């Protein structure tokens, strides 16, 4: 069965009273737990929110999964209607796209072991600590300034998973990561006992906001954006929006093979 037909049947079952007026085509990529073509139920947390918000307006979503650079290009050129999961703070988007209201925030936090928890209120509280980071990631101006000033020591890896394993091995005091990504990996790659040994500090390093972007080359983009914003508002006013986040953070979107 074609995967888009399968998605349609699921949505039809969940929304039996909706008349599907049309379909919007959105690019996406691999970014667990937010978006994924095969590894997550509902294609991930962010995809589920986008799909449900459009469904409330009678619009079916068709996703195309590509490397992120290509996803952006296909949407920018108007070959697809738009794309999911882009940070509103990016200055290069506004010229070519209409930006929806934020789908969700993406907070970044410090994770540490329970038995040696790292508590902080200011960067000075981290003086002398060893902090794991992932190459190419940004953790906020405050963190970057403290890193450049030598307040703490940084150990860099190329994959988020390596930070989780190195923390368990006692290689550093804490690692910085997107909160939802960190929780996803902890539950995915560790045993329940190991996962329970790691905590995150509730004070955030930085928080970004992500949206659906709609190509300015297409005449229907303002219509789709307004429809999505209305559906998102309705979803946030229901209990489902918070429910989806809680389910994701509990690891309930994993596909067990």
Produce a short descriptive summary.
By secondary structure, the chain is an alpha/beta fold. 36% of the residues lie in helices and 24% in strands. Strand 1 (22-28), helix 2 (45-55) and strand 2 form a beta-alpha-beta unit.
What attributes does this structure have?
alpha/beta; D-Maltodextrin-Binding Protein, domain 2; 2 domains; ten-stranded mixed sheet; 24% strand; globular; disordered N terminus
Give the strand tally: 10
The end-to-end span amounts to 19 Å
CATH superfamily of the largest domain: Periplasmic binding protein-like II
Instruction: Please tell me the total number of domains.
Output: 2
The CATH class of the largest domain:
Alpha Beta
Helix content: 25-40%
CATH architecture of the largest domain: 3-Layer(aba) Sandwich
Question: What's the alpha carbon Rg, rounded to whole Å?
Answer: 20 Å
| Unreliable spans | 1-9
Largest sheet: 10 strands, mixed
Shape: globular
Q: Let me know the average pLDDT.
A: 90
For this structure, the CATH topology of the largest domain is D-Maltodextrin-Binding Protein, domain 2
Q: Please trace the helix and strand order, writing H or E for each element.
A: HEHEHEEEEHEHEHHEEHH
Strand content of the residues, in percent? Answer: 15-25%
* Helix/strand class: alpha/beta
Figure out the total of helices: 9
């Amino acid at each position: 069965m074609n995967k888009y037909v399968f998605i349609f049947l699921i949505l039809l079952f969940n929304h039996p009273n909706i008349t599907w007026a049309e379909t919007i085509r959105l690019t996406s990529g691999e970014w667990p737990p937010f978006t994924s073509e095969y590894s997550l139920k509902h294609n991930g947390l962010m995809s589920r929110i986008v799909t449900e918000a459009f469904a409330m307006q009678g619009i079916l979503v068709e996703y195309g999964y590509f490397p992120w650079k290509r996803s952006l290009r296909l949407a920018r050129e108007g070959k697809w209607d738009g794309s999911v999961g882009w940070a509103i703070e990016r200055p290069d988007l506004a010229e070519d796209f209409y930006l929806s209201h934020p789908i969700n925030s993406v907070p970044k936090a410090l994770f540490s072991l329970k038995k040696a928890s790292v508590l902080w209120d200011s960067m000075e509280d981290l003086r002398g600590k060893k902090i794991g980071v992932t190459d190419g990631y940004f953790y906020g101006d405050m963190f970057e300034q403290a890193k450049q000033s030598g307040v703490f020591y940084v150990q860099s890896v190329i994959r988020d998973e390596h930070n989780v394993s190195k923390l368990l091995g006692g290689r550093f005091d804490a690692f910085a990561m997107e909160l939802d990504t960190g929780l996803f990996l902890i539950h995915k790659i560790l045993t329940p006992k190991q996962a329970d040994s790691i905590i995150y500090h509730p004070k955030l390093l930085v928080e970004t906001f992500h949206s659906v972007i709609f190509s300015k080359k297409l005449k229907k983009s303002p219509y789709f954006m307004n429809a999505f914003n209305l559906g998102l508002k309705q979803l946030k006013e229901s209990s489902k929006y918070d429910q989806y986040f809680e389910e994701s953070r509990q690891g309930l979107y994993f596909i067990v093979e």
